[in-house]
Structures are given as structure tokens and as C-alpha cells.
Amino acid sequence: MTERTIYLDHAATTALDPRVLEAMLPYLTTEYGNASSIYTLGRHAMQAVDRAREQVAEVLHCRPTELAFVGCGSESDNLAIKGMAFAAQKKGNHIITSSIEHHAVLHTCEYLDRFGFKTTYLPVDEYARVNPDDVGRAITDQTILVSVMYANNEVGTIEPIAEIGRICRAKKVPFHVDAVQAGGAIPLDVVAANVDMLSLSAHKFYGPKGVGILYTRQGIRILPQMQGGSQERGRRAGTENIAGIVGAATALQLAQAEMEQATPRITALRDRLIESVLTIPQSRLTGHPTQRLPNNASFCFEGVEGESILLSLDMLGIAASTGSACTSGSIDPSHVLIAMGLSPAWSHGGLRLTLGKNTTEAEVDAVAAALPTIVQKVRGLGLSVGA
Ligand code: PLP
To answer: How much is the CA Rg of the chain, to the nearest whole Å?
Structure first.
């Protein structure tokens, strides 16, 4: 066991940046007012939320009034999709999404089936890219929403969002983007990308857990999914999580300010890791070779169960992830790898290594040195899957 965890699972979550904690602390202690209260303590809370909204608006290139703070990335996706579906049900019942979305989108679309909505799940190519022309072809006079993620959470592929946005805008169909993995990692500009709704989650960019953000372009109408007070301009009832909101905005602003300097370093480390891991026999990179998140190195290994690799890495103090979900004892292959056309012999063997701003070259090299033996051992133990 190593003494310190080598944390290569930043796509799952990140540690709170100490500067973010510092910005949050007053709102967890002395500035405990309710933003709806009219006395000074309450006004301080409201001012903090207003400032946070301005900070986020500056990063996304939108108006502060177009932003709502919610409880997490999943809630932001739910609010965008259900909110639009129920607001537009008189116009049509057709939703278009991709087959590689996060379950916060896929399960929301499935849930809407029972209310008479129908969803088209677009295919992706071998690199997990959606073809924008497929979006154009799938749109009918019943289509009320297109939802495509900015970057995939398993394999890191960045989707052609601006092109899809152009097509949706030309056909006057609202376009939602789950940017939970892209937020804080690549520049986002909702205007340039013709995006109508966009979802973010603070814990992916060194902010606190339990804070999501939904951008809704002015003029786009959605129905709130939570009834109660009129917070967030009626889009999301509930007393605001002031400390969380301040933390989310501070974290996003810091990520934006430091992106230009951080990206080349992290990309070089990612590529160093990719190069060494691909020397392992029967291994391949998953996701797009160049259009991918700067911190994402994803692989699969033929005939190997990804979970077995994770357990061996964990024994060495290395935290990583697969795309697979364990359900009632059986290990399902990743829906993303399947959509990319990988056979079962490959799609069970996913491994996602996601780097962070504090990841060092020594850590990357330690993981690269450990992996060949682990994969060989897991193959030798017969913990493998057939074709
Ligand atoms: N969408 C994507 C692409 C994600 O990766 C995640 C979380 O991993 C979510 C949505 C959900 O975000 P949250 O964990 O804040 O609910």
C-alpha cells in the first residue's frame, strides 16, 4: 500500500479548492441569513447570490438572469428536460438525445415515456462522436428538445456542440447541453455555441458537492419541477444554499482564470499516460484521439473485467474508475462503449483515469508502471470475459 492515495478519478468528483472553502466559510458561520429575508442579514445573503450569478454569467457569456442555482448536475439535467417537455407538450412530444448521455439524461427521457413523450437515441461513431447531420435528420415537426452532452463522462470525447446548436437554431428546436464534465475544463460560450440550456455541477471543478447550475436562454420557457417558494425567479423553489452557490461561482471563476495555464500541463501528462498504457498488449484508447477532455485517459483491455483492474489498483492506493455499473451482482458493460461498437470482450474492460490540477508526473508514472502487471495478472487469473 502506498501512503497517499493517487487520485485519478477527477471525473467522479474533485476536492474542494481551499480558496473556495475560504469564500464559503462566512456563509456557513456569521452570514447565515435567508436570502428571502428583508433585514440586513438576509440582504447580505441575497447580495452573495447575486454576485455569484454575475460571476457565473461572465464565464458562460450569458446574462445573470438566465441562470438558476439548483441542487446538483442531475437536477439541472432533470429540470431542463422535464421542464421543457411539460412546457412544450402542446407543441409536440418528440425528444432527441444521444445514446451515450449520462443517466441523469437517459433515465429522465425514459421517465418521460410514461407521459406520452418519445425519445430518439442517436448513435455515435467509434470515437463516441454524434454526427450533427443525424440531429438534423431526426428533427420532426413534433420535436420539442434536443439534448446532447458537451463531453462524455466515460471516454472524454468532446461533441460538436456548436454545429448541433446551429442546426437546432435553424430548425427552431431548443437545445440543451449537459456540460457537467466540460465545465471548468474547457472554455464554454453559450452564445457562440447556440445553446439554449446548459447544465453544470460544481463538484466537478473543485467546488462543493450539492450545487448545480442551469442556464436557460432568455425567452426559453420551462416549467419548474419543484413547487414552493419563488426563489430563482420561480424556476427552483427552496431556500438557497448560499455557501454552496458562492463556492460554485468562485470555483468556476478560478477554473476559468487558470485554464490557459493548467491545460497544457494536464494535456501533456494525459498524453504521457496514454502512450505508456497503450504499450500493454490488447489495449486500446477509448474516445476521440484529439477531441477529448484534457484530463481524460480512457482505455479498454480485451478479455479483462474492468472492476478487477480497479480492485488491484485500489490495493496500491490508486483510485480510478470504469464505465460499468454493477447491478444486483452482475456487471453490465458500459452503454457508452457498447454504443461505440465495442464487442463484449472489450466493453467489459473499461478503465477511466482522469487527472486533476494537482496530479504529478510521478503519480502518472507510478500508475503507468503498475498497470501492465495488473492487467497481466487479471488475465492470468482467468477473471476474463469471452467474446
Ligand atoms: N452529467 C454528467 C455528464 C456527469 O458526469 C454527471 C456526474 O458524474 C452528472 C450529469 C450528474 O452530476 P451530479 O453528480 O452533480 O448530479
So the answer is: 21
| Active site (annotated) includes residue 326 | yes
265 three-state secondary structure:
helix
In 232-357, DSSP assigns E strands to: 283-285, 296-301, 318-319, 325-327, 330-332, 350-354
Separation CA 21–CA 17 (nearest Å): 6
For residue range 332-353, list pLDDT tens digits in order.
789 999 999 999 889 988 999 9
Distance (angstroms) between ligand 1 centre and the Cα of 104 equals: 7
Q: What angle do CA 155, 290, 367 make, to 5 degrees?
A: 55
- Nearest-CA residue for ligand 1 atom 14 is 73
> Against a cut of 0.85, is the pTM above it?
yes
Shortest-distance atom of ligand 1 to CA 77 = 10
Burial class (CB in 10 A: 0-12, 13-18, 19+), 92: middle
pLDDT digits (tens, 9 = 90+) for 62-100: 999 999 999 999 999 999 999 999 999 999 999 999 999
The answer to whether 120 and 140 are in contact (CB under 8 A) is no
Beta carbons within 8 Å of 207's beta carbon, 6+ residues apart? 16, 17, 20, 247, 248, 250, 251, 252
Ligand 1 neighbourhood includes 154 CB (under 6 angstroms): no
Q: How far is the CA of 144 from the centre of ligand 1 (A)?
A: 23
CA distances from residue 201 to 11, 57, 180, 249 in whole angstroms, order as listed = 11, 15, 5, 11
Q: What percent of the chain has pLDDT over 70?
A: 95
